[in-house]
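Allow me, if you will, to draw on your knowledge of protein folds for a short while. The matter concerns a single protein, recorded as an amino acid sequence and a row of backbone structure tokens. Kindly check, if you would, that the fold set down in the tokens agrees with what the sequence suggests. You will find the record immediately after this paragraph.
***
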Amino acid sequence: MSNSLPVEGTALEGNRPASRRKVWSWAMWDWGTQPLNTVIITFVFSVYITGKAFGPENVTAQALALSTGIAGLIVALIAPVLGQRSDRTGRTVFNLRWQTWLIAALAAALFFVKPAPDYLWLGLGILGVASIIGELANVNYYSLIDEVSTKDNVGRVSGFGWGLGYLGGIVALLVLYFGFISPQVGLFGVTSEEGLDIRVSMLVCGIWILLFTIPTFLALKDRPRTEPPEKVGVVASYRLLFASIANLWRSSPHTVFFLAASALFRDGLSGVFAFGAVLASLTFGFSPGDVIVFGAVANVVAGVSTILFGFVDDWIGPKKVIMISLGALVALGLGVFFLHDRGQIVFWTLGMAMTAFVGPAQSASRSFLARLIPDGKSGEIFGLYATTGRAISFLSPAAFGLAVGLGAAVTGEENTAYWGIMGIVLILLAGLLVMIPVKEPADHTMT
């Protein structure tokens, strides 16, 4: 029996290579919006909001896990229907534009979160809404990959976009670190009093997102429609969605298998970055500046690794890239847990090595699905991609929080944040095991 899936009539079938300008413009959205993930969700604001100024360490860490889980469940409910509507109306770029502008506004709104317990849930609320809009924007952005790639280079294009995002993250981090966070008195006289250095950094993130996504919206346009779109209500949209899932199950069951498997491992991958900075701070004693320096180096490693693995993706296939990456992450995560008491060198080596495999797994997952999507279904299928991931997105936050609590019960220690990595490792391992029987697209080549 073949271990590969035939791929005919997909959105990539018959595509001609896009111009370099168009590929760069598409990828600039990743660069432009990366502050949401790198600066806000991972390395700066998440550390700020879980700091002692907002409450006891375990309380703030578990509150972050709770808000992250709730946001994920909301995405799970609405992502595929909104993706379906983008397909039906042909307004993918239009929807991506307003979602991007809203992300920028929410990033800037974090300026109002002062370092006090009364502001904890305000900060987590804005962070949660921003992450929801970011996920919905990703659905539209991913669905545009068939505008800029072919079946022979989709791995490279996906890896380039993802890698450029990581590199954008480091530039943003360095600008904020040397401009506002590191100096006693930063640009425009900004100091750390009342968290002003972090809060002003959030304003800069909003401006960054607006400016660097301009090339995307200049180069990519919605295709003109010859007929007005059919108007479909919310309830009818869900009926169409369920019918589409049933049809997908009949016509391509391994696509459904992949959606289920990737839901697990992508949740684990998200957990690595969502809680990595928290571990660095609470377990390994990294200062906010140390976390940013680590994040900057980590983004260089992740960006270069993801771009290079894009070529490997087109050569050996996306499934092998995913399996290699997940296996390495499980092994390295176990190392972080068992060697946590050896000091910061453990996180600098093993944690840094983990960042080299997160991006390749994410990019290969996107290219895996792009190779299978029927023409005209990109928004809906990538919406399902978001939904299957977010439907269980509470797993990593819950596993992290429960593992922290279990560690406290077992050891009696006040700070057991390092136990959280075991929760993330279990999710990654589950995704790896479920991915094993999934067949991969057969059309990757060695070009």
